[in-house]
């Protein structure tokens, strides 16, 4: 990606000029965490919430990160890019080993890396498929350990889909790169947060915004049957915003496109963060 602004261990450069060691634990063990931080019309969306989650992810893995310095780097990266709309990908790894080993040295120094790219934030209607949740047991940590997501998303791609809805023991968890909301009996529902669900920032922002407008949201444990019986489904993420699901392949869903509650939720979210 030519002329893409990036930063590595506090040094700003272009992405194609940055070199990372093959012994980085991000590379050998996915021993790293990350954030995707969107900005629109030069304004960073929910910056404090993203930084707080990044800090929590670091603390969960005992990373000794200077989160205030990292926050400044992210803001500088956006400023250097001079982009109006886009997002920053920022990653923190435990560091570089002298030789690959499961056990890391107590004095290992963290490694940081980030880049900024343009993004249009245009919503599209998604075709999705259901799949078993194959991921590790701490999905509440925003780790780069995403092989289960990668396998599921690419299997969906082979089936002509753009996303997946994952389930574990017949209960819905989340999308491959998103949280899930659906409407049943004219109520907005979303799976409650557990270790199997990432506390999505867009999820959090949407719940707060629509509750302030008098739209109730129920958080709970929901089955595949609840989803299949729903009237409307949408996925949320920092880059998708609110993306309506048009079809869940190989199911008997009868989704109402442009459902009134989906449109209300999307309008509230758009006016608050993208206007």
Describe the structure.
It is a single chain. With 275 residues, this protein is of the alpha+beta class. The chain folds into two domains: 114 residues, Aminotransferase class 4, branched-chain amino acid transferase, N-terminal domain (D-amino Acid Aminotransferase, Chain A, domain 1, 2-Layer Sandwich), CATH 3.30.470; 148 residues, D-amino Acid Aminotransferase, subunit A, domain 2 (D-amino Acid Aminotransferase, Chain A, domain 2, Alpha-Beta Barrel), CATH 3.20.10.10. Helices cover 28% and strands 30% of the residues. The chain has seven helices and 14 strands. An eight-stranded mixed sheet has the order 9-8-7-14-13-10-11-12. β10 and β11 form a beta hairpin. α5 packs across α7. The radius of gyration is 19 Å and the shape is globular. 35% of the residues are buried. The model has no long low-confidence stretch (mean pLDDT 96).
């Amino acid at each position: 990606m030519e002329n893409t602004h990036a930063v590595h261990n506090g040094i700003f450069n272009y992405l194609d000029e940055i070199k990372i060691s093959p012994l980085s634990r991000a590379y050998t063990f996915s021993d790293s965490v990350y954030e995707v931080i969107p900005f629109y019309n030069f304004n960073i969306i929910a910056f404090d919430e993203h930084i707080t989650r990044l800090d929590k992810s670091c603390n969960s893995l005992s990373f000794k990160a200077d989160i205030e310095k990292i926050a400044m780097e992210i803001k500088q990266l956006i400023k250097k890019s001079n982009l109006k709309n886009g997002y920053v990908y920022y990653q923190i790894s435990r560091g570089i080993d002298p030789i690959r080993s499961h056990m890391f040295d107590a004095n290992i120094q963290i490694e940081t890396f980030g880049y900024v790219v343009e993004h249009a934030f245009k919503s599209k209607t998604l075709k999705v498929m259901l799949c078993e949740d194959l991921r590790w047991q701490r999905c509440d940590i925003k780790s780069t350990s995403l092989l289960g997501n990668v396998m599921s998303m690419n299997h969906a791609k082979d089936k002509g889909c753009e996303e997946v809805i994952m389930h574990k023991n017949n209960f819905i968890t989340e999308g491959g790169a998103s949280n899930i909301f659906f409407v049943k009996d004219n109520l907005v529902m979303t799976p409650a947060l557990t270790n199997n669900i990432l506390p999505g920032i867009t999820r959090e922002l949407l719940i707060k915004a629509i509750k302030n407008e008098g739209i109730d949201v129920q958080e709970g444990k929901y089955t595949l049957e609840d989803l299949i019986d729903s009237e409307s489904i949408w996925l949320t993420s920092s880059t998708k915003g609110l993306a309506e699901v048009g079809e869940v392949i190989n199911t008997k869903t009868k989704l109402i496109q442009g459902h009134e509650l989906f449109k209300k939720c999307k309008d509230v979210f758009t006016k608050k963060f993208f206007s």
